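COMPLEX REQUEST
Ligand: magnesium ion
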Amino acid sequence: MREAGKIVAEVHHEMEKAVEVGVTTGKLDKIAEKCIRRYGAEPAFLGYHNFPASICASINNEVVHGIPGLRKLKEGDIISIDVGARLKGYYGDAAATYAAGEISAQAQKLMDVTRASLQRAIDEMQSGKRLSDISYAVQSYVEEQSFSVVRNYVGHGIGEDMHEEPQVPNFGLPGRGPTLQPGIVLAIEPMVNAGSWEVEVLDDQWTVVTSDGSLSAHFEHTVALGNNGTEILTSTDLL
Ligand code: MG
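STATUS: Structure written out below.
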Protein backbone atom coordinates (compact mmCIF):
# COMPACT_ATOMS: atom_id res chain seq x y z
CA MET A 1 0.00 0.00 0.00
CA ARG A 2 2.98 2.25 0.64
CA GLU A 3 4.14 1.68 -2.93
CA ALA A 4 0.68 2.26 -4.41
CA GLY A 5 0.30 5.38 -2.30
CA LYS A 6 3.60 6.75 -3.47
CA ILE A 7 2.54 6.43 -7.10
CA VAL A 8 -0.64 8.36 -6.33
CA ALA A 9 1.53 11.02 -4.67
CA GLU A 10 3.70 11.16 -7.81
CA VAL A 11 0.58 11.80 -9.89
CA HIS A 12 -0.43 14.68 -7.63
CA HIS A 13 3.06 16.09 -7.88
CA GLU A 14 2.63 16.09 -11.67
CA MET A 15 -0.87 17.55 -11.46
CA GLU A 16 0.41 20.42 -9.35
CA LYS A 17 2.85 21.29 -12.13
CA ALA A 18 0.38 20.72 -14.97
CA VAL A 19 -2.63 22.66 -13.70
CA GLU A 20 -2.59 26.05 -15.43
CA VAL A 21 -4.87 28.36 -17.34
CA GLY A 22 -5.67 26.85 -20.76
CA VAL A 23 -4.91 23.20 -19.98
CA THR A 24 -7.75 20.77 -20.71
CA THR A 25 -8.92 18.28 -18.10
CA GLY A 26 -8.38 15.59 -20.74
CA LYS A 27 -4.71 16.52 -20.94
CA LEU A 28 -4.41 16.26 -17.15
CA ASP A 29 -5.98 12.82 -17.35
CA LYS A 30 -3.44 11.67 -19.95
CA ILE A 31 -0.54 12.93 -17.84
CA ALA A 32 -1.93 11.09 -14.80
CA GLU A 33 -2.49 7.82 -16.66
CA LYS A 34 1.01 7.92 -18.14
CA CYS A 35 2.50 8.52 -14.69
CA ILE A 36 0.58 5.61 -13.13
CA ARG A 37 1.58 3.20 -15.89
CA ARG A 38 5.22 4.36 -15.82
CA TYR A 39 5.43 2.82 -12.35
CA GLY A 40 3.82 -0.42 -13.49
CA ALA A 41 0.52 0.34 -11.73
CA GLU A 42 -3.03 0.49 -13.08
CA PRO A 43 -5.36 3.49 -12.93
CA ALA A 44 -7.94 2.44 -10.34
CA PHE A 45 -10.72 4.69 -11.60
CA LEU A 46 -10.50 3.77 -15.31
CA GLY A 47 -13.39 1.39 -15.98
CA TYR A 48 -14.60 1.50 -12.37
CA HIS A 49 -18.39 1.25 -12.83
CA ASN A 50 -17.50 2.19 -16.43
CA PHE A 51 -15.89 5.51 -15.46
CA PRO A 52 -14.05 6.58 -18.65
CA ALA A 53 -10.86 8.13 -17.24
CA SER A 54 -7.98 7.80 -14.78
CA ILE A 55 -8.76 10.95 -12.80
CA CYS A 56 -11.89 12.70 -11.67
CA ALA A 57 -11.60 16.39 -12.57
CA SER A 58 -14.17 18.59 -10.84
CA ILE A 59 -14.13 22.33 -11.52
CA ASN A 60 -15.55 25.10 -9.29
CA ASN A 61 -19.13 24.10 -8.37
CA GLU A 62 -18.39 20.48 -9.28
CA VAL A 63 -17.80 18.47 -6.11
CA VAL A 64 -16.50 15.09 -7.25
CA HIS A 65 -16.58 12.60 -10.15
CA GLY A 66 -16.18 15.15 -12.96
CA ILE A 67 -15.24 13.49 -16.26
CA PRO A 68 -12.08 14.82 -17.96
CA GLY A 69 -12.51 16.10 -21.50
CA LEU A 70 -12.10 19.16 -23.69
CA ARG A 71 -12.90 21.76 -21.05
CA LYS A 72 -10.05 24.23 -20.55
CA LEU A 73 -9.18 25.75 -17.20
CA LYS A 74 -9.83 29.47 -17.00
CA GLU A 75 -8.15 32.10 -14.84
CA GLY A 76 -9.62 31.82 -11.34
CA ASP A 77 -10.89 28.25 -11.64
CA ILE A 78 -10.30 25.72 -8.90
CA ILE A 79 -10.08 22.07 -9.89
CA SER A 80 -10.38 19.06 -7.62
CA ILE A 81 -8.41 16.10 -8.94
CA ASP A 82 -9.01 12.66 -7.47
CA VAL A 83 -6.85 9.71 -8.52
CA GLY A 84 -6.36 6.10 -7.54
CA ALA A 85 -3.77 3.48 -8.45
CA ARG A 86 -3.57 -0.26 -8.01
CA LEU A 87 -0.22 -1.96 -7.59
CA LYS A 88 0.43 -5.61 -6.73
CA GLY A 89 -3.18 -5.98 -5.62
CA TYR A 90 -3.29 -2.92 -3.36
CA TYR A 91 -4.82 0.50 -3.77
CA GLY A 92 -3.89 4.10 -3.06
CA ASP A 93 -6.36 6.99 -3.40
CA ALA A 94 -5.90 10.74 -2.95
CA ALA A 95 -7.45 14.02 -4.02
CA ALA A 96 -6.45 17.67 -3.94
CA THR A 97 -7.86 20.96 -5.17
CA TYR A 98 -5.62 23.16 -7.30
CA ALA A 99 -5.87 26.77 -8.45
CA ALA A 100 -5.61 27.96 -12.05
CA GLY A 101 -4.01 31.39 -12.04
CA GLU A 102 -5.25 33.99 -9.55
CA ILE A 103 -8.26 32.81 -7.57
CA SER A 104 -10.73 34.68 -5.38
CA ALA A 105 -10.18 35.11 -1.66
CA GLN A 106 -13.20 32.89 -1.03
CA ALA A 107 -11.83 30.10 -3.23
CA GLN A 108 -8.49 30.33 -1.45
CA LYS A 109 -10.13 30.15 1.97
CA LEU A 110 -12.24 27.18 0.86
CA MET A 111 -9.14 25.31 -0.28
CA ASP A 112 -7.23 26.18 2.90
CA VAL A 113 -10.09 25.14 5.19
CA THR A 114 -10.67 21.87 3.34
CA ARG A 115 -6.96 20.98 3.44
CA ALA A 116 -6.80 21.87 7.13
CA SER A 117 -9.92 19.82 7.88
CA LEU A 118 -8.21 16.77 6.39
CA GLN A 119 -5.20 17.36 8.63
CA ARG A 120 -7.48 17.67 11.66
CA ALA A 121 -9.10 14.39 10.68
CA ILE A 122 -5.75 12.67 10.35
CA ASP A 123 -4.75 14.02 13.78
CA GLU A 124 -7.78 12.17 15.24
CA MET A 125 -6.66 8.87 13.75
CA GLN A 126 -5.16 7.46 16.93
CA SER A 127 -5.27 4.07 18.57
CA GLY A 128 -8.22 3.93 20.96
CA LYS A 129 -10.15 6.80 19.39
CA ARG A 130 -13.48 6.10 17.70
CA LEU A 131 -14.12 6.34 13.97
CA SER A 132 -16.61 9.18 14.30
CA ASP A 133 -14.03 11.30 16.15
CA ILE A 134 -12.57 11.77 12.66
CA SER A 135 -15.98 12.75 11.26
CA TYR A 136 -16.65 15.21 14.05
CA ALA A 137 -13.23 16.83 13.68
CA VAL A 138 -13.98 17.63 10.04
CA GLN A 139 -17.53 18.88 10.48
CA SER A 140 -16.93 20.99 13.57
CA TYR A 141 -13.94 22.75 12.05
CA VAL A 142 -15.53 23.31 8.63
CA GLU A 143 -18.75 24.72 10.07
CA GLU A 144 -16.79 26.96 12.43
CA GLN A 145 -15.31 28.45 9.24
CA SER A 146 -18.85 28.98 7.84
CA PHE A 147 -18.57 26.32 5.15
CA SER A 148 -20.46 23.00 4.92
CA VAL A 149 -19.52 19.35 4.51
CA VAL A 150 -21.06 17.15 1.82
CA ARG A 151 -23.24 14.39 3.29
CA ASN A 152 -23.92 12.18 0.25
CA TYR A 153 -20.33 11.04 -0.30
CA VAL A 154 -17.91 9.80 2.34
CA GLY A 155 -14.42 8.43 2.87
CA HIS A 156 -13.75 4.72 3.17
CA GLY A 157 -11.50 1.90 4.20
CA ILE A 158 -9.01 0.91 1.51
CA GLY A 159 -6.69 -2.01 0.87
CA GLU A 160 -7.21 -4.90 -1.53
CA ASP A 161 -10.29 -3.05 -2.73
CA MET A 162 -10.52 0.66 -3.39
CA HIS A 163 -13.64 0.97 -1.25
CA GLU A 164 -13.74 -1.15 1.89
CA GLU A 165 -15.54 -0.93 5.19
CA PRO A 166 -15.84 1.20 7.20
CA GLN A 167 -17.38 4.28 5.63
CA VAL A 168 -15.76 7.47 6.93
CA PRO A 169 -18.33 10.29 6.96
CA ASN A 170 -17.17 13.89 7.24
CA PHE A 171 -19.96 14.69 9.69
CA GLY A 172 -21.43 13.31 12.89
CA LEU A 173 -21.08 13.25 16.63
CA PRO A 174 -17.85 12.02 18.25
CA GLY A 175 -17.40 8.79 20.19
CA ARG A 176 -19.30 6.47 17.84
CA GLY A 177 -18.40 3.59 15.57
CA PRO A 178 -15.47 1.19 15.66
CA THR A 179 -12.46 1.82 17.90
CA LEU A 180 -9.39 2.60 15.82
CA GLN A 181 -6.56 0.11 16.06
CA PRO A 182 -3.15 -0.30 14.41
CA GLY A 183 -3.47 -1.90 11.00
CA ILE A 184 -6.45 0.10 9.80
CA VAL A 185 -6.03 2.09 6.58
CA LEU A 186 -8.53 4.79 5.68
CA ALA A 187 -9.08 7.08 2.72
CA ILE A 188 -10.19 10.24 4.51
CA GLU A 189 -11.69 12.77 2.11
CA PRO A 190 -13.51 15.90 3.20
CA MET A 191 -15.62 17.48 0.45
CA VAL A 192 -16.43 21.03 1.50
CA ASN A 193 -18.88 23.47 -0.07
CA ALA A 194 -18.75 27.25 0.25
CA GLY A 195 -22.57 27.29 0.44
CA SER A 196 -25.07 24.60 1.37
CA TRP A 197 -24.04 20.94 1.73
CA GLU A 198 -26.64 19.78 -0.75
CA VAL A 199 -25.50 18.29 -4.05
CA GLU A 200 -26.95 16.79 -7.20
CA VAL A 201 -25.74 14.57 -10.05
CA LEU A 202 -25.68 15.90 -13.63
CA ASP A 203 -27.22 14.09 -16.61
CA ASP A 204 -23.87 12.47 -17.42
CA GLN A 205 -24.67 10.32 -14.35
CA TRP A 206 -21.27 11.10 -12.82
CA THR A 207 -20.56 14.75 -12.18
CA VAL A 208 -21.69 15.81 -8.71
CA VAL A 209 -22.35 19.55 -8.35
CA THR A 210 -23.43 21.79 -5.50
CA SER A 211 -27.18 22.42 -5.64
CA ASP A 212 -26.75 26.14 -5.00
CA GLY A 213 -23.89 26.57 -7.51
CA SER A 214 -21.37 27.42 -4.80
CA LEU A 215 -17.71 26.41 -4.99
CA SER A 216 -16.53 23.06 -3.65
CA ALA A 217 -13.12 21.68 -2.64
CA HIS A 218 -11.87 18.16 -1.96
CA PHE A 219 -8.75 16.85 -0.26
CA GLU A 220 -8.06 13.18 0.39
CA HIS A 221 -5.23 11.02 1.67
CA THR A 222 -4.81 7.29 2.19
CA VAL A 223 -3.68 7.06 5.81
CA ALA A 224 -2.41 4.01 7.71
CA LEU A 225 -2.50 3.69 11.48
CA GLY A 226 0.49 1.76 12.80
CA ASN A 227 1.92 1.05 16.23
CA ASN A 228 3.77 4.35 16.14
CA GLY A 229 0.98 6.55 14.84
CA THR A 230 -0.22 7.48 11.38
CA GLU A 231 1.55 7.33 8.09
CA ILE A 232 0.13 9.32 5.17
CA LEU A 233 0.74 6.87 2.34
CA THR A 234 -0.13 9.38 -0.40
CA SER A 235 1.86 12.30 0.99
CA THR A 236 3.83 14.25 -1.60
CA ASP A 237 6.25 15.17 1.21
CA LEU A 238 7.75 11.68 0.90
CA LEU A 239 8.76 12.09 -2.75
MG1 MG B 1 -11.67 7.92 -2.08
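REMARKS: The pocket of magnesium ion is lined by residues 93, 156, 187, 189, 220 (CB under 6 Å). The domain at 2-238 is CATH 3.90.230.10 (Creatine Amidinohydrolase).
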